TrEMBL record:
Record-linked InterPro entries: Diverse_substr_monoxygenases, Luciferase-like_dom, Luciferase-like_sf
PANTHER family: ALKANESULFONATE MONOOXYGENASE-RELATED, C2H2 FINGER DOMAIN TRANSCRIPTION FACTOR (EUROFUNG)-RELATED
Name of the molecule in the record: Luciferase-like domain-containing protein
Keyword Flavoprotein assigned: yes
Keywords annotated in UniProt: Flavoprotein, FMN, Monooxygenase, Oxidoreductase
Species assigned in the record: Methylobacterium aquaticum
Pfam families the UniProt entry points to: Bac_luciferase (PF00296)
GO molecular function: monooxygenase activity; oxidoreductase activity, acting on paired donors, with incorporation or reduction of molecular oxygen
């Protein structure tokens, strides 16, 4: 199994003043460095740095929800320098960056991290964010995924320093040779796809897919779709699905569940209502867009739930979202992993050379 965290680049990952008050200042770099070092202490594999360019809402900004938030490229550099083995995945929008920009950023971060940097491929889904870049409306999903295909083709060519890139496509043009450094091997590609077009793209190009189902039982059908789409794309191996899930650990039975329920109830506010529509569109989830799988309990309880999901649904990875975040909060999760190891569902990263 692989484990990571959805990086808290803002005061709160959920639109709640109550949650925001529990979390540290995201503009103090030491808070991020301490959390990165806690990731390695706990023996996580990676972290995902989500990113966007516009606030969710004025109400969200007032409580520190998604605003201010650090850029996924800028934050990746100190996290890579503060750690030795942690994978760091940055979100970069294909719609807002030319492929040459992404290729150059990626090559330099790959160099800085010794191969530990990865790219979360995002097209964009909010028109009011795209307007910052001069778009009146975002292109439709199929057009954006076609542009993303071109982006990958151009990047692959630019990373071959032995020849010029000559690309004149429907969406991008690139002619010439990009200077090094070049990645020794392609960085890890991930995508958080919910639509069929997105999952087909992911199955054709990515190493992992971040999935956000309402229930862990949905992992079975998600993995089946990825396997089918990967085979149709001519790939021998499908991307692994890593499920986004909330994590809250406390020492006493019942304590974490009670706190989690209280915190989720605090989302009933105007910022939460506006975010509901946005996240529902992203997840293609209209019934309960704020409902994610949850692991809330003691370390032993959470470990047993993970083991059960692995055996019952084939769950092979989790991207934890920490409603309450800090290095101390993450270190509460450390006792989970020896239990997983004894159950035979997890191996220490060092035993597999810290591979992705």
């Amino acid at each position: 199994m692989r484990f990571g965290i959805f990086w808290p680049g803002t005061r709160t990952l959920l639109p709640s003043a109550q949650i925001s008050a529990l979390n540290p200042d995201p503009l103090r770099l030491e808070n991020h460095l301490a959390l990165a070092q806690a990731c390695e202490a706990v023996q996580l594999d990676f972290t995902l740095l989500g990113d966007g360019y516009a606030p969710s809402s004025e109400e969200g900004t007032r409580i520190g929800f998604q605003d201010p938030g650090l850029h996924a490229l800028m934050l990746a550099a100190p996290l890579l320098m503060a750690t030795r083995h942690l994978g760091v995945i940055s979100t970069l929008h294909t719609t807002f960056f030319h492929p040459t920009h992404i290729a150059r950023f990626a090559a330099n971060l790959d160099w800085l991290g010794g191969g530990r940097w990865g790219w979360n491929i995002v097209n964009g889904y909010r028109d009011y964010e795209a307007s910052l870049f001069g778009f009146e409306d975002l292109p439709d999903s199929s057009t954006m995924y076609a542009a993303a295909e071109e982006t990958i083709a151009i990047m692959d060519s630019l990373w071959d320093g032995s020849r010029r890139t000559e690309h004149a496509g429907a969406h991008y043009r690139a002619h010439g040779r990009m200077k090094g450094p070049y990645p020794s091997e392609r960085p890890v590609y991930v995508c958080a796809a919910a639509s069929e077009a997105g999952r087909r793209f992911t199955a054709g190009h990515c190493d992992y897919m971040f999935a956000s189902p309402r229930s862990l039982a949905d992992v079975v059908s998600i993995k089946a779709d990825l396997a089918r789409y990967a085979a149709e794309a001519g790939r021998d191996r499908a991307p692994e699905a890593l499920v986004v899930a909330d994590l809250l650990i406390r020492d006493e039975p019942g304590e974490a569940k009670a706190l989690y329920g209280e915190l989720m109830a605090s989302l009933d506010n105007e910022a939460g209502r506006k975010w509901t529509g946005q996240i529902g569109k992203l997840r293609h989830e209209k019934t309960a867009p704020l409902e994610f799988p949850v692991f809330a309990g003691t370390p032993a309880e959470v470990a047993e739930e993970i083991i059960a999901a692995n055996k019952q649904f084939g769950l092979n990875g989790l991207l934890f979202r920490l409603p309450v975040w800090s290095s101390a909060e993450l270190l509460r999760a450390a006792p989970i992993f020896p239990i997983l190891e004894r159950a035979g569902v997890w191996r220490r990263p060092a035993s597999r050379r810290h591979s992705w």
